[in-house]
Design brief:
A hairpin with a 5-residue loop joins strand 7 and strand 8. It contains 28 helices and twelve strands. With 698 residues, the protein is an alpha+beta fold. The protein has a five-stranded antiparallel β-sheet with strand order 4-5-6-7-8. Strands 3-2-9 form a three-stranded antiparallel β-sheet.
Length: 698
């Protein structure tokens, strides 16, 4: 492998034939390593689907113990699709991390819906319960469309005007998505190892048609003999052969030790493609650690649960077949003498099943009674057969109880309870009965979390800013848009300052320079300037170390279904905020200095609710305004003038107005208006004085 490593460092130019031979040997070695487990899983799957090779009616009489136990465990270990939960790791006041978390969470929710994550998790759950291993594979796909440059593609002058003579060859991303592929337990291989961290390569098998291979690898790969392995594999059933007819099984291999990927057809000595990994993931693998069942520390070969109670199931099937055979013997069988030609037809007629009540004449009655009458007819003793059936059923019931003890499926889980048990007793049995399956629940929850984290990493590293905002529905300004608004503000301030300078030069009284106060912005622009930019969010998401420190990706429960969970979270948040504001309002009126402490307490409580993240920004803005208003110095109250002083002020104002009117209208008219205005001023002053006196008495 040293030559391959040097080739990778020099540009990844490897000989497809040499690499293909090496990886065919690695695949065969891994298949031999997992062969015993693979054969065991094939038998278990046939038992589960009732597809055994024996087709006789007697052999088909089995007790479906594996199917019954699996049906009980399926909803117990996985019940609903996991929902992504992306939060700030330390719940601090970091607007960029908060917006980034919400954007990633919404993109993950959409990606899970598009990939039908629920059906994928159910398939993994079934493989996990039957074969003790289940896995998936993640991919990044993007559709491209030509970039409209506004020029004709055939215009040579236009092509020469672009760098490198490019014209309409430029493309832009039109659609991006994260694909989550279910991988059957027989289509997944990895290098033999004791622990998952020691695995050096992983591989999955993908059936591809000729058109798909030609589109993916080109005609040269098809002509190189890679398609010679097309067709069905050995040991497949008739349905699988029909499904894989005309398809080639291609292995996609990710080699972590050599840092490259390879595509090779099953059985072909020539590699189809050798390239660098298309994704730069933290743990390199495009798949999470498989969901493992029972394993030892010696290897990564799991042990299916059915192995531990297979002998009991075989005995249960044997007893079931025996009970069915004995049940067939529960028939009334009569023996009578056939030598007497007169009596035998009469007895046969009486024993016919279609005769409910019949009168049978016997010609030679004396001869019939001499032979004992009813003693001449002897029946088969079926009481002994019934006793054997009862004994077999008791033995089978005990074996079934043994299976329940082995698997840990308690009576309360199976729905088999006693009427005399109290609700507390049933709850205790349910709690202890679920202990044996908690590890399985935790393993599938861990597996779902790893899928969400891998998808989140692909979204953060690969998705364009436009896709992030389009999918999440959150519109953020770009850095260029903010700079443009700031430039407009500066231009407005400069224009206002220049206007003030011109007014001062023309001899007008100088006032406070308008340039010192920023102009008012529309509310929409104010909100935009207060938001983080999409460039800051993308920079945080692209930086692996900062993203890991500030953003944590988890999933909610996959076990307990709760359709009203989101509604309940919102109601709890509203109740918390309403109760806190009601209590804090009274305290703030008595001591305004406690307002900043109350604001921080409210934000601390709101950050603990998932439903409160959308209102967190608004709460921060309102809290800052309340804190500023509470701590700002209050203006001193101005003393109210007395009624006499108010009368003097009104009289002075009236006289000043009268003097001005005299110059305009003449003395006579001004004198009349002067007297009317004096009377009006006296009336207003008297009314104000009365109002002040009433207020003082109250």
């Amino acid at each position: 492998m040293e030559d391959e490593t040097m080739a990778l460092e020099s540009g990844l130019h490897l000989d497809p034939a040499k690499v293909g031979v090496h990886w065919q040997q690695e695949l065969e070695r891994a298949q031999r390593y997992f062969k015993s487990w693979h054969d065991r899983c094939v038998k278990i799957e046939k038992i589960y689907l009732d597809q055994q090779s024996d087709q006789t009616s007697a052999a088909k009489r089995r007790f479906p113990m594996l199917w019954a136990n699996t049906a009980v465990l399926q909803p117990a270990v996985y019940a609903r699709v996991p929902q992504p939960v992306v939060e700030r790791r330390f719940k601090d006041a970091e607007p960029v991390a908060r917006i980034a978390s919400e954007i990633v969470e919404r993109n993950l929710a959409y990606a899970g819906d598009e990939a039908d994550l629920d059906s994928i998790m159910r398939a993994v759950r079934d493989d996990f319960l039957l074969c003790a291993r289940g896995t998936v594979w993640l991919r990044y796909e993007a559709d491209f469309e030509p970039l409209d440059m506004g020029v004709a593609p055939s215009d040579p002058a236009a092509e020469n005007g672009l760098p490198g003579g490019l014209g309409a060859a430029l493309e832009t991303i039109a659609d991006e998505r994260v694909c989550i592929d279910y991988v059957h337990w027989s289509d997944f291989l990895h290098s033999p190892a004791r622990r998952w961290k020691d695995v050096t390569w992983v591989a999955r098998r993908v059936p591809m048609s000729g058109e798909e291979m030609e589109k993916r690898f080109g005609r040269e790969a098809m002509a190189s003999g890679a398609a010679q392995a097309a067709g069905a594999r050995k040991g497949e059933s008739q349905a699988e052969r029909a499904e894989n007819e005309g398809r080639t099984h291609v292995w996609e291999i990710w080699c972590k030790s050599e840092n490259y990927t390879i595509w090779i057809a099953d059985g072909s000595p020539v590699a189809l493609e050798v390239s660098e990994p298309p994704l730069e993931l933290t743990h390199f693998w495009p798949c999470p650690r498989p969901a493992y069942g029972t394993m030892s520390t010696s290897s990564l070969i799991p042990v299916p649960d059915y192995v531990y109670y297979q002998q009991q199931c075989d005995e249960i099937d044997l007893l079931t077949r025996r009970i069915n055979k004995l049940t067939d013997q529960l028939r009334l069988k009569v023996f009578y003498p056939s030598g007497d030609g007169a009596i035998s037809p009469a007895i046969e007629k009486a024993m016919r099943p279609d005769n409910d009540m019949v009168m049978v004449p016997i010609p030679e009655w004396a001869a019939f009674t001499d032979k004992g009458g009813s003693k001449a007819v002897v029946t088969l003793p079926i009481d002994e057969v019934q006793k054997v059936i009862v004994a077999c059923m008791a033995a089978r019931k005990q074996l079934i109880e043994d299976v329940y003890q082995i698997t840990g499926i308690s009576d309360i889980v199976r729905g088999d309870t006693q009427a005399s048990e109290t609700a507390t007793a049933q709850r205790i049995k349910s709690q202890w009965g679920s202990i044996r399956i908690r590890d399985r629940q935790a393993e599938l929850a861990r597996f779902a979390r790893d899928i969400i984290r891998l998808a989140g990493e692909i979204i953060c590293d690969q998705f364009q800013p436009e896709t992030l905002m389009l999918v999440s529905g959150i519109k953020l300004p770009s850095m260029a848009e903010k700079q443009q608004v700031q430039m407009q503000l500066q231009q407005m301030q400069m224009a206002a300052g220049q206007a003030a300078m011109r007014a001062q030069q023309m001899g007008q009284p100088a006032q406070a320079p308008p340039a010192m106060a920023p102009p008012e912005l529309p509310p929409q622009l104010q909100r935009m300037m207060g938001q983080p930019t999409i460039d800051e969010v993308v920079q945080l998401l692209r930086n692996d170390s900062i993203r890991g420190f500030q953003i944590d990706i988890e999933t909610d429960s996959t076990i307990e279904p709760d359709e009203d969970a989101e509604k309940q979270r919102r109601m709890e948040f509203v109740q918390m905020v309403g109760g806190f504001i009601q209590q804090a309002g009274a305290m703030a009126q008595q001591n305004p200095m406690l307002v900043p402490v109350m604001v921080e307490t409210l934000l601390f409580a709101a950050r603990g609710f998932r439903a409160g993240r959308q209102l967190e920004s608004t709460l921060e803005q309102v809290g800052a305004q309340l804190s500023q208003a509470a701590t700002a110095p209050k203006p001193e109250p101005q003393p109210q003038p007395s009624p006499a002083e108010m009368l003097k002020l009104k009289t002075a104002e009236v006289k000043a107005g009268a003097e001005q009117r005299k110059a305009e209208l003449g003395v006579a008219q001004a004198e009349i208006e002067h007297r009317a205005m004096l009377e009006q001023a006296r009336g207003e002053a008297a009314a104000q004085a009365i109002d002040q006196m009433r207020a003082s008495y109250q």
